Amino acid sequence: MNISPFTLCTNKKLIFKPGSIEYIATELKFYGDNTVIITGGKSLSAGGKLEKIEKSLKDCGISFSLFQVSDEPSPELIDEITEQLRGRAIDSIAAIGGGSVIDTGKAVSAMLREEGSICDFLEGIGTRTTSGDKLPFIAVPTTAGTGSEATYNAVISRVGENGFKKSLRNQNYVPEIAIIDPELYAGAPASVAASSGMDALAQLIESYLSTKSTFYTDLMLPGAIEAVFEALPIVTADKDDEEICDEVCSDAWEKMAYGAYISGLALANCGYCIVHGMAGAVGGFYKAPHGVICGALLAEGMKQTLNRLEKEDPDSPALLKAAKLGHIFAKSEDMLPKEARARFIQMLESLTESLGIPKLSKFGINEDSLQKIADASSNKNSPAVFEKNEIIEILRNRL
Ligand SMILES: [Fe+2]
Q1: What residues contact residue 75 under an 8 Å CB cut-off, 6+ apart?
Q2: How far apart are the CA of 265 and the centre of ligand 1, in A?
């Protein structure tokens, strides 16, 4: 067992507590009196929470500009917000919302310290390198999914024929502060909870099996995977289900919030495997929720990964880890490794089915789409490396 090497990029401060949104004004005040708030709008305004936040900012003497955004951030959106803010005295930025909102805030906080368009700096698109300088940024997630509150990249998308999903990335871009208030997650529609939850679960499992996983992330990941696997059916259950009391539900949201955070931390420090390697490509071409794509591909991507390793690399640590997850999911140590791995896949398939995650064809993906998706896919840090024709096969099995 090797402890080194590893690098850990993480927030300066993490506040994890029900009701902790109340701390946002005092945390922002530390950086100065002028801030920018970015939200997704709807759910925050509808619940009266946005008004409360605005009042607490005013009470603290903080003046702010408010931007409400929807959808995944495009380069045009980031450039537009940045241009509106350039030259103004701004001490900090805070984003309160889902992964797209947090990625918007993260990208704007960085681009306000760079000249030019974000396209110049996107991986695989631009040619310029980010300086790493940025405005202080506070992330307050309201969905349990991307873990963007813990990562140092912002995903920017352009959807369509020449579409892409690319990252603005610099290790300095981890939000200075993450405020995780599990109460903000509760009340998400079941479809959103299922989609973002499958994103978190995919990120956790892929990070755990990744060739870049470390001693440190291996300590955290099994517990976080277990937490999300247990909580996901509860937070997506029928709200009228009388067997699920408020206490069970709030406990489940805490587990989801924790799991999503760890999924971001793990991503930032060990990367993904084939599922996100394909999901990024699909998301560039088709307008489908990222979490649904990840959910649709998770069990099949993991199944093919394990099949390959069993044949070609039977000593791979990823096989041992998958067996461990099989024991955790089944709550039984009484299985041989191969049986435990089969159980792991089987339980992922059942979860996908029970959450109603649709297949890829629902989003217009068909046989004719597979080659271009495979060409744009990558293996990332997968322990099994797939050729393009094998990626096509994985996608085809989920049409
Ligand atoms: Fe993801």
Answers
A1: 117, 118, 119, 122, 156, 158
A2: 12
Radius of gyration over every alpha carbon of the chain, rounded to an integer in angstroms: 21
pLDDT-derived band at 134, boundaries 50, 70, 90: very high
Nearest to 130 by CA among 154, 114, 106: 114
Ligand 1 mean position, distance from CA 15 (Å) = 22
Contact 185, 232 (CB under 8 A): no
C-alpha 91 – ligand 1 centre gap (Å)? 30
Domain count, the chain: 2
Per-residue pLDDT band for 1 (boundaries 50, 70, 90) equals low
Instruction: Say whether both 245 and 136 belong to one domain.
Output: no
| Residue 3 placed within a domain | no
Mapped onto helix, strand or coil, the DSSP state of residue 118 is: helix
Burial class (CB in 10 A: 0-12, 13-18, 19+), 29: middle
pLDDT surpasses 90 at 5: no
Residue 7 resides in a domain:
no
pLDDT of residue 52: 92
| Three-state secondary-structure class, residue 332 | coil
The reply to whether 165 and 195 lie within a common domain is: no
Q: Give the Å distance between the CA of 260 and the centre of ligand 1.
A: 10
Find the 87 Cα to ligand 1 centroid distance in Å.
34
CATH number, domain of 361, equals 1.20.1090.10
- Whole-number Å distance, alpha carbon 197 to ligand 1 midpoint, is 10
For residue 200, report the distance from its CA to the centre of ligand 1, in Å. 7
Give the model's pLDDT for residue 140. 98
CA-closest candidate to residue 207, choices 139, 254, 278, 262: 262
Last residue of a domain, one of 167, 184, 201: 184
| Cβ proximity of 191 and 27 under 8 Å | no
Is pTM beyond 0.90? Reply is: yes
User: What separation in Å is there between the alpha carbon of 75 and the centre of ligand 1?
Assistant: 19
